[in-house]
Structure to design on (287 residues):
């Protein structure tokens, strides 16, 4: 995925005959600007787009930058290669077993860094849409579940196979269990079985299934539809959605009532309501 509007990554464009080192030195995460949409593409296909140290660092930097960028109204997350994301980099993790503590400190830091990235996606003012083209495993499912929306190719498959290697997918479980009904989530976690794109849609892990190769276009089209709304309203709604979900019913209604009241005082709410009454298109000021 290359666009003339792509943000400069500092890496020269590679030809079809570029040597292997150039691939290894390519950015872990590419960022392109598609009008008011930020397209983030995981770019370590040879590593199955694992959530390595460099990938997590790239995500943290990109998400912080996007959160502060008022020109970005929605985000699409895609991946190069046949695998969307294979979860944690097991080679990186295993290499630290020779540490004095057997790797305990490194493992804890890695899980916390990954959890921070997932929470940054949820906390991002802009909606994030995953465009899933292929296989998604373990913490890759955590990544998809952490996105606000997800579009997947018919070829996409999902699984949390940690149980098969003696490592229960506990951190992926946090995001998965907040998207998928309990028994479906437990079946994925306890069996490690592969789930088709159609079943992933049925159980609520993704929104839509599309023809192979069209997932990014479909995600961008959905992002564009959202980008046409008031950015302030979308920000208010996204934050309120995730906050009220963890509250008891009565507390959730009290909180949502406060949010609605504050939202009604915003210029865009006044403009939107007047536009309906005047039978015209609204002009958003994002305030």
């Amino acid at each position: 995925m290359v666009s003339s509007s792509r943000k400069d990554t500092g890496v020269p464009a590679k030809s079809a005959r570029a040597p292997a080192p150039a691939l290894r030195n390519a950015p872990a995460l590419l960022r392109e600007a598609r009008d008011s949409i930020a397209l983030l593409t995981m770019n370590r296909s040879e590593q199955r787009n694992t959530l390595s140290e460099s990938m997590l660092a790239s995500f943290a930097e990109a998400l912080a930058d996007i959160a502060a960028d008022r020109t970005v109204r929605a985000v699409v997350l895609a991946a190069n290669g046949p695998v969307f994301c294979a979860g944690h980099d097991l080679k990186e993790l295993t290499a630290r077993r020779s540490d004095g503590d057997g790797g305990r400190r490194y493992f804890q830091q890695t899980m916390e860094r990954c959890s921070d990235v997932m929470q940054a996606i949820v906390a991002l003012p802009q909606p994030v849409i995953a465009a899933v083209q292929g296989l998604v495993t373990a913490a890759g499912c955590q990544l998809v579940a952490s996105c606000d929306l997800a579009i997947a190719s018919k070829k996409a498959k999902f699984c949390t196979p940690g149980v098969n290697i003696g490592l229960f997918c506990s951190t992926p479980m946090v995001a998965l269990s907040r998207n998928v009904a309990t028994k479906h989530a437990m079946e994925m976690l306890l069996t490690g079985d592969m789930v088709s794109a159609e079943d992933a849609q049925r159980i609520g892990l993704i929104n839509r299934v599309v023809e192979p190769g069209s997932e990014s276009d479909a995600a961008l089209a959905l992002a564009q539809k959202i980008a046409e709304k008031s950015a302030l309203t979308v920000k208010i709604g996204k934050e309120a959605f995730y906050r009220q979900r963890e509250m008891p019913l009565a507390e959730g209604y009290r909180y949502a009532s406060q949010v609605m009241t504050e939202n009604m005082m915003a210029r865009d709410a006044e403009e939107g309501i007047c536009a309906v009454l005047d039978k015209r298109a609204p002009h958003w000021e994002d305030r």
Observations:
- Residues 245 and 252 are 7 Å apart (CA to CA).
